[in-house]
Amino acid sequence: MTTCRTGTPSTRSLADDLHCARTSVRATTQAVGTLSIEEGYSVQRSLIELRLQEGELLAGLKLGFTSRAKMAQMGVSEVIVGVLTDAMQIPDGEALAASSLIHPRVEPEIAFRVGSDVDLANPGTSLVDAVDAVAPALEIIDSRYADFKFDLASVIADNTSASAFAVGPWQPVPQDISNLGVRLEIDGAPAQFGSTAAILGDPWRSLTALAHIGRRVGYRVNAGDVILAGAATAAIPLAKSTVAVRVTGLGRVVVRVV
Ligand code: OOG
Ligand code: MG
Q1: pLDDT at site 10
Q2: Pick from 78, 89, 97, 100: nearest CA to 23
Q3: 64 C-alpha vs ligand 1 centroid, how far in Å?
Q4: What is the C-alpha to C-alpha distance for residues 187 and 76, in angstroms, rounded to an integer?
Q5: Integer Cα distance of 14 and 30 in angstroms
Q6: Residue 43 to residue 166: CA distance in whole angstroms
Q7: Which terminus of the chain has a smaller tally of CB atoms within 10 A, N or C?
């Protein structure tokens, strides 16, 4: 197991610290200090850069705190954006090693697939129009901070707790996704119920929020990208089990945590 160097934020960068916390599977206890939101995104970009240097590829973007349930659970009140890489994606039905996770939680989501490159800097282009498929999804979050405790800028720095995600079979874009039933199951037993309506009233709105933040932060959206709309319910702690998300009319996605 890797041992992370210790030090104060002034002697070591927060991105290095968060990167090491993830790869060594040990939460950082280092004080974060007071970051602005913009500084949070700047640390997030450095953190992703470290992953790209290790050979990972960009796979898309994710929204966080798009539902009241999540905002209330974590004590924050603003939509945030994180980055997905190929290494985070677990193929539908496949296994994820619990030993690679610090204190994981799972949450039910829906995913959008982007069909063509979108220039967010051009206000005339529509991210909504670029979506060519929708799927049931689940996200596994795993804060690199001890006890899953953070403020808004710190969780942005930690790439919005992104750890792993899985996407079910892609479906043609349905007429209306504003109120689909969402169910999270652990070993076949229902663990959370909700509706896609919990995601900003309609998950399409998460794309408007993403375009806005992505433009400010300088993120790109490319053909083939996956976008996670944000959890429809609060997250629940994840132990070794089979976890599934079903979304009415979209189907289901499964991951085995071993
Ligand atoms: C941050 C991630 C939030 C969501 O779907 O709301 C998120 C966290 O809860 O640690 O992914
Ligand atoms: Mg999420």
Answers
A1: 46
A2: 100
A3: 5
A4: 30
A5: 9
A6: 25
A7: N
Give the burial string for 75-106 (b: 16+ CB within 10 Å, else e): ebeebbbbbbbeebbbebeeebeeeebbbbbb
pLDDT for 90 beyond 50: yes
pTM for the model stands at: 0.95
What distance in Å separates the CA atoms of residue 177 and residue 77, rounded to the nearest whole number?
24
Find out whether 220 and 114 touch, Cβ atoms under 8 Å.
no
Strand (E) or helix (H) holding 246: strand 241-247
DSSP per position, 124-190? T--HHHHEEEEEEEEEEE--SBGGG---HHHHHHTGGGEEEEEE---BPPPS--TT-EEEEEETTEE
Taking the C-alpha atoms of residue 64 and residue 81, their distance in angstroms, rounded to an integer, is 6
Residue to probe by mutation, ligand 1, list 68, 76, 107, most atoms within 8 Å of CB? 107
Q: What pLDDT band is residue 2 in, cutting at 50, 70 and 90?
A: low
* Ligand 1: centre distance to CA 251 (Å): 23
In angstroms, the CA 159 to CA 63 distance is 10
